[in-house]
Amino acid sequence: MSNNFFNEMYDASGIVRPHYCAYADWLLATPAERIARKRAEADIAFHRVGITFAVYGDESSQDQGKERLIPFDIIPRIIPAAEWLVLQAGLRQRVKALNAFLYDIYHKQEILQAGHIPREQVLNNAQFRPEMMGIDVPAGIYAHIAGIDLVRAGAGEFYVLEDNLRVPSGVSYMIEDRKMMMRLFPELFSRHKVAPVQHYPDMLLENLRTVAPAGVLNPTVVLLTPGAYNSAYFEHTFLAQQMGIELVEGRDLFVRDETVYMRTTQGPQRVDVIYRRLDDDFLDPLAFRKDSMLGVPGLLSAYRAGQVTLANAIGTGVADDKSIYPYVPEMVRFYLGEESLLNNVPTYMLRKPDDLKYTLEHLPELVVKEVHGAGGLRHAGRPGLDPERNREFPCPHHCRAGKVHCTANTRTVQLSDIC
Amino acid sequence: MLSRTADHLYWMARFTERAENLARLLDVTHQMSLVPQSVAAGNQNWGAILALNSLQTAFSKTYDEANAENVLRFMVSDADNPASIYSCLRAARENAHAVRGTLTAETWESCNATWIELREQSFEQILSVGVGEFFEWVKLRSAVMRGVTFGTMLQDDALHFIRLGGLLERSDNTARILDVKYHVLRTNGDEGTTDFYQWGALLRSLSAFEVYRKVYRDVITPARVAELLMLRVDMPRSLHACVDGIVRVLNRVANSSSAETGRRAGMLHAQLHYARIDDILGKGLHEYLTDFMDRIYDLGDGIGRDFLVPAN
Question: Which residue of A lies nearest to B4 if distances are taken between CA atoms?
Fold first, then answer.
């Protein structure tokens, strides 16, 4: 397999790709010991930062004392500016179309009426929230923060692996990694013109402030976390601190007269925008999961009354569902009248007999995923899967298969500005 | 600031202070036990520490005799005893972790480092090095934490609630140490060298030995020890100094529902401010200290209701 992987740095004939030349020179000229020393330095520094979500935990657990480090590769993945411009335009276009889709299916459902997406695919989807029908969200934005997973297939050739529109995470790693890289190898930054990423929290805060309920001049924005035991808690504290906003848990908030307040030492304080890092199901025990201890009773009623903005909106999961994914290029066409700048990975839907046949015949080259659920954790199959074991497939109606792309690995690009 | 954040900061400070004062109490008991005495008298002193914290029942579930080693093990390293130094420092760290975004990096790291170092020491190791050294370490780590906190944090509500928690805990703990030791010492009776060492150990445990010399320039008498630890406003661990600080902080953080708590704190302060030690000793020190601890508990209750865990 490995010889099929796309090499970011060298082309097929072993020549350094143009945008890696400066880095390759540096790598050649820098003694290995210095790199090893810097690498160790990075580990120590990350231990100190990452220590929170690693050492912590069940006293009796085997993991006690083990530390999970921020993933950090000393060889950077360089995306040339020209490629990035295309990517950027494609990502904006995609997120815009996904937001238009969400607005549409919670209003007139024109795309369904036009027959571009099978009606039952959307309306019977567990992530479709009837509670959102007819609700107008500020600026018509549902997914304020989107994580679009990309995969490189060849030079200048990117595919979208999947969309994450619910509570995408990982942006803090990007910022921490960049900070570390600048600290360890400042000379690299003088050799390259590297686009900055450090202002992400500022952009995020600005975006969150602009979607405050109408009439609120100086909105109070908070970040809602499931709590210190959540694996992304480091990111929650990081972003709240960087944005200078309160990091709240469900129990810090309460709803009175369809208005959300937080409990402060100076009495109740009104909350206008909630950047929530909590899934829909747990947001409001009165509306969704009754056993949720993490949510805020009555939050949905305040939200529906337009008294508070949630970012992301409720019900975005229907647009990043893997069964909806194949239709995104269709959405771009339908809502924007444009052709998609970014391609989907060729996908076979196993509920279609022809696709199912193809998939079973080409199993070793394909990745098979269950359509429900976010992320790629629940792969039912992957390259090299023993064909004898394909009886373990989940029901074909709930599966899709995608081509395997040979790549160094995939990386999530966060896009906070969608306008 | 968010009530829960204030709550975590307040308890972080309380547990850190509690661990320190427990180390002080165990240290003085340990030092007093070094003076020749009968086994029964020695065990009585160790038993008194359990009684002070109402821990006899919990103790007797795992241990038989309340002797030096058992009580030390129970109060230093026992993870199942919520009042042990181990449990206090763990709770302090858990509270700090929950609000680490509010703390400066140095404050968080010093709290975290304390916990990591503590976890690496078994009770056997502590014994082999010497418990006295361990108690010094606990006091030192508490001092580092305090220094880093007051040396690096913005002087806003976060710092006020840290201070409030520390002062409330310290006032209670000083009262407890005095209560348990004063009685042991008084009933021991005779003046003499033993007594001198015992009172000296008590003063030292509260870092008050040199202070005593400086203030009184005279022999150590029980009444003066009580006065120093209760009524001197310039003695940082005295009841008066603690309540003085509590009143000041409450003024800074006051909100629309905290007037009653402020009034009660002010009243307690006035009583300490105008009290005479002879009157207190005449009416009974134990009664006075018991009443004081009840009122500190009541203040803690009020602070919780007004600021930390308010109803809607």
Answer: A252
Q: Are B238 and B281 found together in one domain?
A: yes
Q: ipTM of this model?
A: 0.79
- What's the mean pLDDT in A348-375? 75
Return the residue of A nearest to B7 by Cα: A265
Q: Same domain for B290 and B204?
A: yes
Query: Among B118, B153, B188, where does a domain finish?
Result: B153
Query: What pLDDT digit, counting tens, does each position of A305-344 carry?
Result: 999 999 999 999 999 988 899 999 999 999 999 999 998 9
Residue among A265, A270, A271, A296 with most chain B CBs within 10 A, to mutate: A265
Which contacts qualify for B81-88: CB closer than 8 Å, 24 or more apart?
B81/B55, B83/B22, B83/B53, B83/B55, B84/B22, B85/B19, B85/B22, B85/B23, B85/B118, B85/B138, B86/B118, B88/B15, B88/B16, B88/B18, B88/B19, B88/B22
Chain B nearest-CA distance from A287, in A, is 21
Domain residues of chain A, as ranges? Answer: 79-197+321-419, 199-311
CB proximity A264 to B under 8 Å = yes
The topology under which CATH files domain A199-311 is Rossmann fold (3.40.50)
pLDDT of residue A156: 75
Give the pLDDT band (50/70/90) at residue B22: very high
Is the same domain home to B214 and B147? no
Please report whether residue B171 resides in a domain.
no
The answer to whether A270 faces chain B, any CB pair under 8 Å, is no
pLDDT at B258: 95
Query: Are residues B298 and B211 part of one domain?
Result: yes
Which of A398-402, B51-55, B64-68 is predicted most confidently? B64-68
How do the residues of chain A divide into helix, strand and coil, expressed in percent and rounded to 5?
40, 15, 40
Q: What are the tokens at A111?
A: 């795309």
Same domain for B27 and B85, yes or no, is yes
The verdict on B183 and B137 lying in the same domain is: no
Q: Which one has a higher pLDDT value, B35 or B231? A: B231
In a domain, B165, yes or no: no
What was the pLDDT predicted at B185? 67
Has residue B160 been placed in a domain?
A: no
Q: E strands, A72-186, where?
A: 146-154, 157-164
Q: Which residues of A touch B156 (CB under 8 A)?
A: none
Minimal CA–CA distance to B238: which of B292, B282, B195? B292
CA distance A98 to A119: 17
Q: Same structural domain for residues B82 and B215?
A: no
How many residues in chain B?
312
**Residue range(s) defining the domain that contains residue B120:** 1-153
pLDDT band, very low/low/confident/very high, at A272 (cuts 50, 70, 90): very high
Q: Concatenate the DSSP letters of all residues of A290-349 into one string.
A: TT-SSS-TTHHHHHHTTSSEEESPTTTHHHH-TTTGGGHHHHIIIIISS--SSEEPPEEE
Say if A256 is an interface residue toward chain B (CB within 8 Å): yes
Instruction: Determine the pLDDT at residue A397.
Output: 53
Q: How many domains does chain B have?
A: 2
List the 341-370 stretch of A: residues with Cβ below 8 A of B. none
The pLDDT-based confidence of B1 (bands split at 50, 70, 90) is: very high
Residues A56-115: tens digit of each pLDDT: 444 444 444 444 666 678 888 899 999 999 999 999 999 999 999 999 999 999 999 999
Say yes or no: A229 contacts chain B, CB-CB below 8 A: no
In this prediction, residue B186 carries a pLDDT of 63
Residue B158 lies inside a defined structural domain of this protein: no
Which residues does chain A have within 8 Å of residue B98's beta carbon, measured at their own beta carbons?
228
Query: Nearest CA of chain A to the CA of B99: how many Å?
Result: 8
pLDDT tens-digit series, residues A36-52 = 998 888 887 776 665 44
Residues B300 and B197 grouped into a single domain: yes
Query: Does A369 score more than 90 pLDDT?
Result: no
